[in-house]
Every structure is written in structure tokens, then in C-alpha cells.
Specification:
By secondary structure, this protein is of the alpha+beta class. It has one domain: Aminopeptidase (3-Layer(aba) Sandwich), CATH 3.40.630. Helices cover 29% and strands 33% of the residues. The chain has four helices and seven strands; from the N terminus they run βααβββαβαββ. α1 packs across α2. It starts with a strand and ends in a 12-residue tail after the last strand. The mean pLDDT is 96. GO terms for molecular function: acyltransferase activity, transferring groups other than amino-acyl groups. InterPro entries: Acyl_CoA_acyltransferase (IPR016181), GNAT_dom (IPR000182). This is N-acetyltransferase. Keywords: Transferase.
């Protein structure tokens, strides 16, 4: 398994993985899957923000992906990231999410970020909750019934993990 930066050649596979989760799952509250142009636009936005979008490639095929985004756009949040992880449904439970998330955490720490947040649906999110807890995240809260998909109300669970020194020291002045 190779973890690498996503490139335009990965867009069709990323789109297929995400479309599955949009149509059949509750990991995202989107209800209409974006087309390849929509995924390309999202990939471009992440890259232009100086943040990574990683893919896990095995036997030449994308098996999952993870990207980082700013938790919020306001300047005061500049040391906090949010992660998103999606795995090809045929390859879930094989440690791909762990590899991707570990790689993303290492990247974020090397860049000097101090906190990472995950927002996980409670629908079929047990695996995602377990993935994040195993990676050192702690549950910090639950937003009850904030989503409605597949005919039911869904909660989101907020998880957080310190990166590097976390809040034990102040960041450099900028």
C-alpha cells in the first residue's frame, strides 16, 4: 500500500468512492454525489490552501483517501485542521483508514498545526469513531439530530486530537 498525494489521475476513483458513500451511507450528509469536475474543484481548493489530499494506492488502484481542511476559515483557527477519510467499501476494515489518518497526522504535526478535529456521523460511523479514537482523538461532544438522510435523523460526534505540543506552548508569532 502506497500513500501519496492525490493527483488528477486519481479523480475518477475518488469520485466513485465518494459517490458510494453519498448514495448509500451516512459518512457525509450530501445527497447528490458530485461529478468528476466537482471532485477536481474540491481537490484544487485543498491544494490551493496548501493542504494535502492523500490517496492509498494498492495494485495501481485507489482504495481510499484522506484530506485535510481548515477547521474554520477565520484567522484565529489557523492552527486547527479537520480531517476527512473515505475508504472504498470493498476494502473497509483492512487498515487503510489507519494508514491514511496516521500519514495525515504526521504531515500536520510536521507543518506546526496544533489541533485536529473530526466530525463523524453516528449513522454507520462506528468504524470511523473507532479509527479516530485509536489515532488518539477524544470525543468532545455530540450535535443531536442535525442531519436528516435516508429517512432518519442523524447526530454528529465531534472528536479532537492535539498535534505536536498542542496547547502546551504558544505558536510562533505571525
Amino acid at each position: 500500500m502506497e500513500i501519496t498525494e492525490a493527483d488528477d489521475i486519481h479523480i475518477p476513483a475518488i469520485q466513485q468512492i465518494y459517490a458510494y458513500h453519498v448514495l448509500h451511507g451516512t459518512a457525509t450528509f450530501e445527497t447528490e454525489p458530485p461529478d468528476e469536475a466537482g471532485i477536481a474543484s474540491r481537490l484544487r481548493k485543498v491544494r490551493e490552501g496548501g493542504l494535502p489530499w492523500f490517496v492509498a494506492v494498492d495494485e495501481g488502484r485507489v482504495r481510499g483517501y484522506c484530506y485535510l481542511s481548515l477547521y474554520r476559515e477565520r484567522y484565529g483557527y489557523r492552527f486547527t485542521l479537520e480531517d476527512s477519510v473515505y475508504i472504498d467499501p470493498a476494502f473497509q476494515g483492512r487498515g487503510i483508514g489507519t494508514l491514511l489518518l496516521s500519514h495525515a497526522i504526521a504531515w500536520a504535526e510536521a507543518q506546526g498545526f496544533r489541533q485536529m478535529v473530526a466530525v463523524v456521523s453516528n449513522g454507520e460511523g462506528r468504524a470511523s469513531l473507532a479509527l479516530h479514537c485509536a489515532a488518539g482523538f477524544s470525543i468532545t461532544g455530540t450535535l443531536r439530530s442535525v442531519g436528516f438522510k435516508h429517512g432518519r435523523w442523524l447526530d454528529t460526534v465531534i472528536l479532537q486530537r492535539s498535534l505536536g505540543e498542542g496547547d502546551a506552548s504558544l505558536p510562533g508569532v505571525d
